[in-house]
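User: My instructor asked us to take a sequence, write out its structure as tokens, and then describe one feature of it. I'm not sure where to start. Here is the sequence I was given:
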Amino acid sequence: MPGGSLLYGASVLTLTGLTTQLIGFIYRILLSRAVGAEAMGIYHLVISAYSVMLSVCLSGLTTASLRLSAGMYALGRKARCARLIKKLLSIFFLLSAGCAVMVFGFSGFISENILNDSRTRLGLVLLIPVMLLTGVENVFKTHFLGIGRVIPGALSDVGEIAVRMMAVFAVLTLAKPDNIAVTVACIVIGMGVSEVFSSSVLFMTYRKTAVRAEEVRGQKDPLNKQIFRTAVPVALTNFASNLLSSANSVMIPARMALTGMAKSDAVALLGTMFGMSLPMITFPMAFIDGLAGAIVPSLSEGMAKGDIGAVRRKISKAFLGVSLFAIPSAALMIPVGPDIARLLFGSEAAGNYMTPLCFCVSVLELRSISSIILTSIGRESRAALHFITGGAVQTAFTWFGTTIPGVGVYAIIAGLAASGLVTLILNINCIVSTTGLRVRFVSWFVCPCVAVLPAELLAAFIYADVSGTLSLPFAVLVSVLPAIALYILLIRAMGIKHTELFFLRKEEGMKKRLAINNGPKP
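Assistant: Let's start with the prediction itself. The structure tokens for your sequence are:
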């Protein structure tokens, strides 16, 4: 990877993540204010179905693009990389054609009997061409990431979200929709415009640098088996998890309606929780997205070369980095988050569930990085099983808990936390058995939790004192900045140094260079 360490890729992807998160967050705020909570709920149902389609047609292929490109490029097999991309795109278009036939033929049944709302039908149909463009974009993006070229994907991500924001509001302004179904369709059309931009940019970049694809004649192509072994478990993982997640989303309005809540209010609740509150809490997590994107090719390269020691060190630093950032980011949202959400989204309900959601977000982020690590070290099938198990736990909480008097929506939040915790424990156990990793429980989990507790109490105390006299932005800054400083001081006092998080020690760097120079030849 250019830059000589995991820090380079993580830094570029983090900067990209921060930029796209910021633009996307502004976009989500403006969109929520423009269309309302109920339209956001319908949009969430449509996107839930879309995620299931992507999991079948694309998720496994992008993982294959990322992991196999990293391994081939590390061994100098550029022509095989080119053949890999051709095969992946061919498979994607074949799968997408089958998916399109099903959606076009059964859109009415899907919208009315599966999503339980006919207003999702138009948006669902319009997502098919969007999916085709998304597939092209992501195959190329993950290929670039796998070979260590993070800039093309980073630029396309930033451009895509900026174009999406402009396109969606342009379509909404021109169409002036008078019902929620058309409103959601306008949002999907804007998504399509942004995908045209990003897929075109990445395709043209690939064309400039691609070599002639390797040809295999008169023998069985081993690449087919590699793609199958990498893609199928990941696709099953994502299909199962997205299917359960989508079922959970569809289930929420239906189960809440059994408690006496009107259907429109139940759909609005879905839009408020998943379209406003959760994005607000996860906004600071762009660092984790950058780390995740950088560590996949790094771990795949280490496993391909048999350098288990380097793999263990990077996994340990990944867990430590996520814990050090995710835990305080979520905790410091508890005192200030509800008021920020109400102000930004213009909805009193937007802040109602911030506090309980903050408690489960850190677990979800740790689960996410553990699943990515597990996939990167070749244990896709176990990751699939763990995701399915966690998804089943979440669905059970929603099904049985939402109708209990006095529990309702809190069962959904408890299900998120329980699902994340179960999956995290299973993932860590498998990572340990595969790599021999030593779990640093105190450093990874206990120290950040102990350090953030006084910091969170300090932020809450200051905010309660100044919120009535200062404007909200100044009150948040005055409350959070001293808390962050206290947290960092406490973490350092415990012997954990942020500056050493991603850097290899000098002797480790020498080992890495020797491994590259003396590694197996193509």
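For the description part of your assignment, you could build on this observation: The chain has a mean pLDDT of 83. Try explaining in your own words what that tells you about the chain.
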